[in-house]
Amino acid sequence: MTTSQLILANYRSPKMAFTKKLSEGISETKVFIWLLIACFLQFLARLPLLSREAHLDIDGPSLVSMIGGVLIGSIFLAPLVFYALSMLLCFVFRLWFRDLNWIYFRGAFFWSLLAISPLVLVRGILVGAMGTNFYINLLSILVFLYFIILIVSNVKTIDRVMNAN
């Protein structure tokens, strides 16, 4: 299955989708590419809101300057933050899963980021159309909770696969 098909399959059965990714092998290159694609898609999700803000705030910064700032943050700074966050979370998850390897945890974490990208894109479109309101905040909380559920599910899948071998 292609990555996009596995992302969609992830909404039906996260364990099955991540098990297929594990069977293909986890490498630093794959994990880094998942992170970069997720960061780029999250950058794209911010564009409707930036366009809305530039249109509504005539005296504010131009759309091009806002896009440039978000691009630098999304493509250059966010991966560094996500690597640091994955390291900290790996230490936390090692309290429950003693044999957890850092590369496998990064795979679980970055795959979860990539898997929620369609939801983040939908949220971005809605924010661009409606602005920030209660329902957008509720959707953001639900997407974050799904992200946490995916991370835990993926780590359990790693533990199950590693203990089976």
List the defining traits of the structure above.
165 residues, mainly alpha, 7 helices, 85% helix, 0% strand, elongated
Detailed description of the structure:
- The protein has about 160 residues and is mainly alpha-helical.
- The protein has one domain.
- Helices cover about 85% and strands about 0% of the residues.
- The chain has 7 helices and no strands.
- α2 crosses α7.
- The longest helix has about 30 residues.
- The protein is elongated.
- The two termini are about 25 Å apart.
- The model has no long low-confidence stretch (mean pLDDT about 90).
Number of helices: 7
* Strand fraction: under 5%
Structural class, by secondary structure, is mainly alpha
**Percent helix:** over 70%
List low-pLDDT spans: none
Q: In the residues, how many domains can be counted?
A: 1
Largest sheet: none
Radius of gyration, in angstroms, nearest whole number: 17 Å
Query: Shape from CA axes?
Result: elongated
What is the H-and-E element order? HHHHHHH
Number of strands: 0
N-to-C span: 24 Å
Mean pLDDT: 92
Give the SSE layout.
Elements: H1 3-12, H2 14-24, H3 28-56, H4 63-93, H5 102-115, H6 117-130, H7 134-164
